[in-house]
Design goal:
With 535 residues, this protein is α/β, with parallel strands linked by helices. The protein has 3 domains: 191 residues, 3-Layer(bba) Sandwich (FAD/NAD(P)-binding domain); 116 residues, no CATH class; 122 residues, no CATH class. The protein contains 17 helices and 19 strands. The chain has a 7-stranded mixed β-sheet. A 5-stranded parallel β-sheet has the order 9-2-1-13-19, covered by helices on one side. Helix 1 runs parallel beside helix 17 and helix 4 runs antiparallel to helix 5. The longest helix has 29 residues. The chain is globular.
């Protein structure tokens, strides 16, 4: 590239940090903007009375060489082997139902064998399901291979799954499972991880479920020192390449001239010139508010307006003056379901109601942290999560956080009380000696991430919003690119990849503009040319 070009990145979640680092590596002068005082988006932890709580990470997959998370971090100069440790390989997830439980484990074939032993009548159908999962796992490994690694004839083998995936691209996970499995319990066991994609099997895209299960097929990992250690590594990788950060800098508008990106304006009126902008904010916010629908083609305007957000979530963060290992808890995540009818459990949410009994996710990140930094000695953290309808809190959505008052506080504390009562009913005596209690609602994600309707996973992972139907890195607005959960998928490793793809697309964009400028004989930067035609 000729001269120094300016890039502005909006948002410093994993996608924004990845994009910033890759843009700087390509020679851009990069400024990354964060609306909060703390970098990191949902990667940023918070501390209370000696306890540290992670907001956006409970575990990740793909941390072995050649896998997606490992290779994305390696591209940024971060050694995933040093940063992450594997936990509970014999059962990193426990899926508990009223009359059975199963443990997901490292090794796709081992997990298959466990399910076949539990549901012998479904052995043939399970073999078919896991054959597809195996193909997705191999295809992801092939796609994760670093450039220049070389190719072999054996690389064609993973491509065998592509026709199947094409057929599945418009179907739900529930449809896929029903074609292979008759036993509702077997289908529930394979859908119990659904909290990771945020939808019941009848609404979740089959592609999304397959990708998430395959991502964890070789085990689950957690950062040594918690999510803050991963965040620190990503920030350092960006700073080492020259990225400048601004906190307390909420973007109000992406400026355009003749339809081409020229900069970003903050809520306080400060403006930053930019040749390219990468937004790590939800695509519907970026396109519908920061740019504005008047600058978009009609088809994209319609798509933005009809995008369905992910389901809202409530989380109770507990700091306990006790070692949870003495009360039966391990580093494994526990998914507790009151029924195997997962679609039935989610159905009330669509009507703005809670189900009679809540599906719960319990995770103790302090037990996963081999560095021992997340809780004082002899103490533990515990996170209890469930999905909730946005309607429970929508009356306060337009009210500033500091002005929501006692009504909001009472509503969220009552919800937390109910969640903990159900924990006590299913796991008597687990929760006690509470030193810290914090409660997050869908509005927490609205406040911290500008998440539409409080959906923590970006656009819902339905068949119409997954894969080729999701938002793309490139936009019709010249100079504007997207990163984050709305581009490829939710999850840290796909989000890191989205940032890398956005940076590469931006680089190619300015190279094309430079060739056009040279062809037309312009002497100055195209971004300063009032007559520069958009491409």
């Amino acid at each position: 590239m000729d001269g120094t070009l300016k890039a502005v990145v909006i948002g410093t979640g994993a996608g924004g940090l990845s994009a910033a680092a890759w843009l700087a590596r390509s020679g851009f002068e990069v400024t990354a903007l964060e609306q909060r005082q703390q970098l990191g988006g949902s990667l940023a932890p918070f501390e209370r009375e000696g306890f540290t709580f992670d907001v956006g990470i409970n575990y990740v997959g793909g941390c072995r060489p050649g896998q997606l998370m490992y290779e994305q971090l390696a591209g940024l100069g971060i050694d995933a082997s040093a940063l992450f440790s594997e936990f509970e390989p014999d059962g990193f997830d426990i899926y508990r139902f009223p009359d059975f439980e199963v443990r997901n484990c490292a090794g796709l074939e081992r997990f298959r064998d466990r399910l076949q032993a539990l549901f012998p009548a479904e052995a043939a159908g399970l073999a078919e399901v896991f054959e597809t999962l195996s193909g997705v796992r191999d295809l992801m490994a092939l796609a994760s291979r670093p450039r220049g690694a070389g190719h072999h004839a054996s690389d064609l083998r993973p491509l065998r799954v592509l026709p199947t995936l094409w057929r599945l691209s418009r179907g739900t996970w529930g449809d896929f499972l029903r074609r292979h499995l008759e036993d509702e319990r077997a289908r529930a066991a394979l859908s119990a991880m659904g909290g990771d994609w945020g939808l019941p099997p009848g609404r979740a895209a089959a592609m999304a479920a397959l990708a998430v299960i395959a991502d964890y097929s070789e085990g689950a990992f957690f950062p040594r020192g918690g999510g803050g250690a991963l965040l620190a590594a990503l920030v350092e990788a960006a700073r080492a390449r020259g990225v400048a950060f601004r906190t307390g800098a909420a973007a109000r508008r992406i400026h355009l001239s003749r339809g081409v990106v020229t900069g970003v304006e903050l809520e306080d009126g400060e403006a930053f010139e930019a040749d390219v902008v990468v937004s790590d904010v939800d695509p519907t916010v970026t396109l519908g508010h920061l740019v504005g629908p008047e600058s978009l083609p009609a088809a994209l305007q319609a798509r933005v307006s009809r995008t369905v957000p992910s389901t809202g979530m409530a989380v109770v963060y507990l700091g306990l003056r006790r070692d949870l290992r003495r009360y039966g808890m391990s580093a494994a995540n526990l998914w507790s379901y009151p029924s195997t009818d997962l679609d039935g459990l989610f159905a009330p949410l669509e009507r703005g109601l809670l189900p009679p009994e809540l599906p719960l996710f319990l995770s103790s990140n302090s037990l996963k942290d081999t560095a021992g930094r997340l809780a004082p000695p002899g103490c533990s953290t515990l996170e209890v999560s469930t999905f909730v309808p946005e309607a429970m809190f929508e009356r306060w959505a337009s009210v500033p956080p500091q002005a929501r008052g006692e009504g909001y506080h009472a509503r969220k504390e009552a919800l937390a009380d109910r969640m903990l009562c159900e924990v006590e009913a299913r796991l008597p005596g687990l929760v006690g000696d509470i030193a810290v209690r914090e409660v997050a609602t869908p509005l927490t994600w609205v406040d911290s991430l500008r998440a539409p309707h409080g959906g923590p996973y970006g656009p819902a992972m339905t068949p119409r919003q997954t894969g080729r139907f999701r938002f793309h890195t490139r936009t019709p607005v010249p100079g504007l690119f997207l990163a984050g959960q709305g581009v490829l998928s939710m999850g840290i490793s796909p989000v890191l990849l989205s940032g890398r793809l956005a940076a590469h697309a931006a680089e190619h964009y300015v190279e094309r503009r430079a060739r056009l400028r040279h062809h037309l004989g312009w002497g100055r930067s195209w971004s300063a040319e009032a007559d520069a035609p958009p491409l």
